[in-house]
Design goal:
Blueprint (H helix, E strand, L loop, with lengths): L4 H6 L15 E2 L6 H26 L6 H36 L2 H41 L4 H6 L1 H21 L3 E3 L8 E3 L15 H38 L5 H17 L1 H25 L9 E2 H18 L2 H11 L2 H23 L1 H6 L18 H7 L9 H16 L2 H4 L2 H6 L3
Antiparallel strand pairs: 1-4, 2-3
Helix pairs in contact: 2-3, 2-10, 2-11, 3-4, 3-11, 4-6, 4-7, 4-15, 7-8, 7-9, 8-15, 9-10
Organism: Amphimedon queenslandica (Sponge)
Subcellular location: Membrane
Keywords: Membrane, Transmembrane, Transmembrane helix
Length: 435
């Protein structure tokens, strides 16, 4: 057991310090409870959103297409990311309570142990989420641009190795070198990469070259690379769609494909935009930190200039919202904006529930209107149009086709997840007109 805070620092343990005294034009970097509260709300929504996103894959076999599988595994990664951040929020409040009752030494020791575990889990889950986001972009590129659905399917074992296994290995060096821990600089009050200088009065206000390398290795470099990859892949998809629309002919086949492509193009704008807007705040904070701490915007008491403190606080709030929001934002993109998934997962159960409640309250009226029962009404079509079934309807083989057929099949596959209800219903008609 260590007795003083200085001894705790020598043991490479650090905890939040709300009692740093600052004066004049300088302010403490302590954010208070606001980031933790904002993070808890956003991450709780993501837990719920991730579970909802997984449901279609678990409930209906006809939804288990390649794109939906990737979206499902992305939701699993987002679930663990949100759960780890909630773990950090709870650890923060336990530390605040224990520091008042058991003393800062005991509280800090317990806090640091949990902090290291949370840092590893959140870094691994974020790494995995970046992988699945990149894989989704590549899969859509193969489907739309190359018209090669089978190519994306055959690499699923490799996807799992890269997405789940490589992040574990990437975090091992940071774990064994005791680099995971609490830092104001590294993240918005979460546990990530601890500072390397513990013998200075600026324990949490340091960001030297070693810290920068550790932060980049902990996932920041891969995150920035994912931004570039997503922009590249979706940019290529948009260019390909524009080319297809320019090259269309008056035939009914290409005319139908053109209508579908316009709808696809609109929805594909939201995927990279949502990812980058949500995740960029932590990257901006990291870049600002390099400037602030290398140009000595902190004084010898570890206090930062008030203008930069306000900037840090704003970025911290935005990061707390964005980093924990991927689960519920992806739920909106892939569930609530998919009309037939929304119909099957939400509207139909609500309709059935309301009908059964009505039969209990108004049994006589319900008997006369039994013909309108959801049970007797035709069930909605599946949200997905299986690419394999499209191939079988015209007697063609399931393997990849070239030319117009390959492009149409790629378009049909993309519509399984992202297209509007009326566009999905056109896919069998287009497929039946193939020559």
């Amino acid at each position: 057991m260590w007795n003083t805070f200085h001894e705790l620092m020598k043991q490479s343990i650090y905890c939040p310090r709300p009692n740093r005294t600052c004066s004049g034009d300088y302010s403490s970097l302590y954010y208070g409870d606001t980031p933790a509260i904002v993070s808890f709300i956003s991450c709780s929504l993501s837990l719920l959103g991730s579970l909802i996103t997984v449901l279609p894959y678990l409930l209906w076999k006809d939804t288990r297409t390649g794109i939906r599988r990737i979206i499902t595994f992305l939701a699993v990664a987002d679930f663990f990311t949100a759960a780890s951040y909630i773990m950090g929020n709870i650890n923060f409040y336990i530390y605040k309570h224990n520091s008042k009752t058991a003393g800062i030494n005991t509280a800090c020791n317990y806090f640091d142990q949990i902090c290291e575990v949370q840092s590893y889990i959140s870094s691994w889950a974020s790494y995995s989420s970046f992988w699945w986001t990149s894989i989704l972009a590549l899969y859509l590129y193969w489907t739309v641009v190359k018209g090669d659905i089978k190519k994306g399917e055959r690499y699923f074992p490799l996807y799992h190795v890269l997405s789940w296994g490589s992040p574990m290995l990437a975090m091992v060096p940071l774990l064994v070198t005791n680099s995971l821990g609490y830092s104001y600089v590294a993240a918005a009050g979460w546990c990530f990469i601890r500072g390397s200088r513990f013998d200075s009065s600026l324990q949490y206000a340091q960001l030297d070259f070693e810290d920068i390398v550790k932060i980049l290795a902990g996932g920041k470099a891969f995150e920035i690379g994912t931004y570039a990859w997503v922009l590249l892949m979706y940019g290529a998809i948009h260019c390909n769609i524009r080319k297809k629309k320019k090259d269309q002919t008056p035939t009914s086949i290409n005319g139908g494909v053109s209508v579908l492509l316009r709808q696809i193009q609109k929805k594909l704008y939201f995927i990279p935009a949502a990812f980058i807007i949500l995740r960029m705040w932590g990257t901006i904070q990291f870049i600002v930190s390099i400037f602030v701490f290398n140009f000595r915007k902190v004084n010898q008491d570890g206090c930062i200039e008030k203008g930069y403190r306000d900037l840090y606080f704003s970025l911290a709030i935005l990061q707390c919202i964005g980093d924990g929001a991927q689960g519920w934002v992806n739920c909106i993109l892939y569930i609530f904006w998919s009309p037939k998934i929304r119909q099957r997962l939400i509207l139909n159960p609500l309709s059935n529930c309301c009908y059964h409640v009505a039969t209990q309250i108004l049994p006589t009226t319900s008997r006369h209107s039994s013909a309108l029962s959801p049970v007797n009404s035709p069930s909605p079509k599946s949200v997905f149009v299986s690419v394999q079934h499209v191939g079988e309807e015209d007697g063609g083989p399931k393997e990849n086709r070239g030319g117009v057929e390959g492009e149409q099949e790629g378009t049909s596959a993309l519509l399984q997840t992202f297209s509007r209800e009326e566009d999905e219903e056109r896919v069998p008609l287009i497929a039946s007109e193939k020559t």
